[in-house]
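Reference record
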Amino acid sequence: MKRTICLFTALLLLLLLLPACGDTSSDPSEPPETQALPETSEPTPEPTHEPSQYEPLTGLPCDEDLSGTRPAAVMLNNLKSALPQQGNSQADIIYEVLAEGGITRMLGIYQHPERVGPIGSVRSARQYFWELSQGHNAVFIHAGGSPEFYETKSRLGLFTVDGVNGAYSLAGAGMFWRNRERIEGHYYDYEHSLLTSGEAIAAMLEQEQKTAYDEGFTYEMAFADDGTPSGGKSAATVTVPFSNYKSGVFHYDQASGQYLVEEYGEPYIDGNDNTQVAVTNLIVVQTTCTVVDSDGRLNIDLTSGNGWFACGGQMIPITWEKGSPEQQLRFFTQDGASLTLGRGKSYVCVIPTTREVTAE
């Protein structure tokens, strides 16, 4: 009897435990508990790299502080018989100004001469080219010069790098050399054969301890990603006449946002790699140009005046001023605000007030 009771009790306990050991899901009368899905969101964008610094002469981004770094300024021959120039497409700023007889010469300003190969042909200086170089506190590189320039150099005790006179004109200095066959297929007259190089210029700047600006000098220029002037007129093609002998033509290329330069009816070429010179900013400075001697040499007034600015296929009138040689050339809109350039290289044409710029 006792055994029967024990078996019955064990069976009862087993029946009571079966629901707990069977289906462990929730009561079907209750809605099943749903698992929260992970929230979806847009992919996190990659962080953009903000430039830490900008080039002083072009406004282009860079990763080093160049605000106190002195550039080099090189006189470039521009006679038809001396073309093509070399290293001209890599200048950050090109100044083109009349010399005597209606011809022009260029002054190339280089922030990074060490990146440039051969540069030339190097030609003689004029007072006003030196004054333009001093607006950048640049080391002035030339081959000879006018009597006026040499008088100024002697009187002020200027340091310049001369390929005709002085220590750097000597072959052993390694600064200049002559190559009358410097471009394949061309044979140049002696006066069109003098070259220097970016490597030689960089070494000279180090040797002379001229890599930094003079104390107290600061170069100031404003740049924008888009320098197209508001309220401008169409300037897809700009023609800048220097004289009856020489005009510059600038064709705006929409794809690159740059002006492609022509002269003498042909593309303005860099003989180092056959690249056509292209610039973001075209600036025209109009001023008084006066013949001062029997050789036709000129005085170019660099105090102040009017001009034009073209960028992005648009052109506006501007004013400009410079003053003393050590002051930089400054540009202003018609309402007196400082001009803002587009980021990139610039071409500055200095022409007589008697010449008319055309744009279409």
Notes: DSSP finds four helices and 28 strands in the chain.
